[in-house]
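In these records, each integer encodes one residue's backbone shape. Here is one protein:

___
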Amino acid sequence: MIDAGVPADDAASVAEKVNEAKDKAVENGATTDDDLTKDVEQVKEQLEDLGNEDVVIPDENDENDVANATLLTAINASSSQLDSADTDLSQLNTTLADVQELSETLDTKEQATAYFSAASQLSASFDAQKDAIAAIFSAEATNIDAHIAAAQALVDIDTKYQATLDLATELKGKLESLVQFNDSIATQVAEQISNATKAVEDFDVKLEASAQAATSALESATTAKDAFTELETPLKAEISAANSLVEQIVDLDSAIAALDAVTSAQGSLSNVADLSQDFTTKATVAVTTATDYKAEADAQGEQVEQATEALQNAQQIKAEADTAASSVTAYTSELSTAEETAQERKLAYEQQLEDDRELNEALVGQISEQLQLLSVPQGEITGFETELVQVKEKGTNTNTVDLATEYYLAALSLQTAVSVDKQNGWNTTLSGVSDKAQEIVSSATALANRNSEYTSTKDNADALLASTEQTQAKVSALVSGIDAEVSNAEAKLTLEQQIAAALKLAQDLITETQTAETEVATKQAEFEAAYNEAQAAFNNIENLGTAQQALDAAVAAVAAGDAY
């Protein structure tokens, strides 16, 4: 942020407020650090889900944008929490409307009993959920205040973040509306249970109505249990299959397949978790209504045995609901571990692919470098092989002393050129290339075994090593061939003739050396003169014309230097 021109104090303030908003969201259970990290990458989709496309799409190189994206994901997490509470309250409100409809006609004891049963279950359902809803309201009140403070700090830096502040402010209004909605439902539920109690008391059927409420609630809990079990069975199989795929990850494709399977299982788990929550709520309602039934039976001294059994049945199904909830927690943990493992392996294989790509580039460069080194002795050896062929041709016609001498001089000259020092130079170069080629082949083979895409690099490495070995063999063959020609030429001349020829060869070499030294001295003098001329020209630059002269002189000096 400081790099973006934001004062250090302001940057620190924004960072502090954003982190505070994030920490509160994590602390209150609205999200997790891992989810926030993943959500930043998906923030555009999340923002569209929030229905506001005017928000800033984050530039990962802009610290303000990154802070804004982090804040937006926290805002989205809070919005999801409020949506969850809204869904629960809306369902309660729908049930409330059904109960209110029953209250409109209370002419018979059957109608009063049905009304009381529905009102009792509604009241118990509201009581079962009110603490969780209140906890959401309390946590999000703190979270949203932190969101607004952080968003305001960003807006103070740049008004382009106004949309983020608007979202946070809208959330505060949504929270206040939901709190009012909750209070209204609470008031109406209390009113309905009060009216329903009076109705059954007027008809003197409170015990029967309590029994019906308990029976109906147990039936609802049993239905919820069956719905949960129906989806839990395939979920177990799906989780097992996903875990199996995670265990069988061997490459990037299998890692992606495993991660997809885990994601799919998590989607199924979300549905099962909703059913588990519904099961828990309805089992709690069953216990509450059965407890009321037992209390009424004890008070009236009637149906005590039936009420006791009803309470036991309700408690049993509540225990099963608790087990279901524990199973969901275990499934969540299991899939979270599987996701983490699959993600880690996916990242590892992605990194391996990147490492392999870089290794391949390095190996290709090394092969090219070694081929260049190899080309020097190869070129020289090829030239000497051509000369050897010419020497051999001279050896086919030596029927005069002059021709025999020419043959001998050619063979001896070639042997002198391919000196021990020359051979040692070749062998040193070839040995170095051979060692390096073997290293390259080893790395390229391992690389190709991991990824067939790089088989060509292995083939090129093998070709480099083979070419090096072939060149090493050529050195021995060349030296042997030259030695054979020298021996053959010596056999065609007397010792005196050989000495005379050798002296002539030595004199020719001396002459060539002297000529070369003279040429080097001449080129050196020409270079020094051109250099001095260029330096003088640069010192005398006064206008465009003299500048061009200096440039021309510099070009001439470079050419003279190359020649030297």
